[in-house]
Specification:
The protein is built from nine helices and five strands. With about 220 residues, the chain is mainly alpha-helical. It folds into two domains: about 100 residues, Rossmann fold (3-Layer(aba) Sandwich), CATH 3.40.50; about 90 residues, Winged helix-like DNA-binding domain superfamily/Winged helix DNA-binding domain (Arc Repressor Mutant, subunit A). InterPro entries: CheY-like_superfamily, NreC/VraR/RcsB-like_REC, Sig_transdc_resp-reg_C-effctor, Sig_transdc_resp-reg_receiver, Tscrpt_reg_LuxR_C, WalR-like. Keywords: DNA-binding, Phosphoprotein, Transcription, Transcription regulation.
Length: about 220
């Protein structure tokens, strides 16, 4: 059965991780909403299998309850483009799907940074993204450092006294040099490499609110 909502087609549903992987391979969707807690195979393993080695893999959004699901951080490291709390409204869900489909990372205000700070420790997480930051220029390193504390493109532009277009160019170059999919993985890299650590100035206050146009 195919359902539509505001121009979004629901091409498949699955009751467990095994069937989710099979459904993705069969239908090749653009975006997958994946619950972490499922029978047979949990959502984290299912996401890893969906994203591993695929040339045109879909974007994956993990559904979670923040206080319980410690594996969301590992999901971001595995390539998921973000996560949502299960109590999101239908309008928020539709907006999230569109945002991720457009190529952006879903960095929810207040939650993403708290999650990374709570669970990220260099070398501790399985499936971590390891990248050599030596390819980045000093300016790109500073942009990545602030990006990882949750600052939006607009806030980065103010911090560096640059235009938002120039900031977007810096972010795009960072992602390209480090072979990353989106900002979510950039945050993971910054913490895994020790560029940013829990308690870094700017990493403990209220989170920035990345706009739909952030890249």
């Amino acid at each position: 059965m195919i359902l539509t909502a505001d121009g979004i087609e629901v091409v498949a549903e699955a009751a467990d991780g095994v069937r989710a992987v099979e459904a993705v391979r069969r239908t090749r969707p653009d975006v997958v909403l994946m619950d972490i807690r499922m029978p047979e195979m949990d959502g984290l393993e299912a996401a890893r299998r969906i994203l591993a080695g695929a040339d045109a893999s879909p974007r994956v959004i993990m559904l979670t309850t923040f206080d319980l699901d410690r594996y969301v951080y590992a999901a971001l490291a595995a390539g998921a483009s973000g996560f949502l709390l299960k109590d999101v409204t239908p309008e928020q869900l539709v907006a999230a799907v569109r945002l991720v489909r457009a190529g952006d990372a879903l960095l929810a205000p207040t939650i993403t940074r708290r999650l990374v700070e709570r669970f990220a420790a260099p070398g501790r997480q399985a499936g971590a993204i390891h990248r050599d930051l030596a390819t980045l220029t000093p300016r790109e390193l500073e942009v990545l450092r602030l990006l990882a504390t949750g600052q939006s493109n607009a806030e980065l532009a103010v911090a560096f006294q640059l235009s938002e277009a120039t900031v977007k160019t810096h972010v795009a170059r960072i992602l390209a040099k480090l072979r990353l999919r989106d900002r979510a993985q950039a945050v993971v890299v910054a913490y895994e490499t020790g560029l940013v650590t829990p308690g870094t100035p700017g990493a403990a206050g209220s989170a920035a609110r990345p706009a739909a146009g952030d890249f």
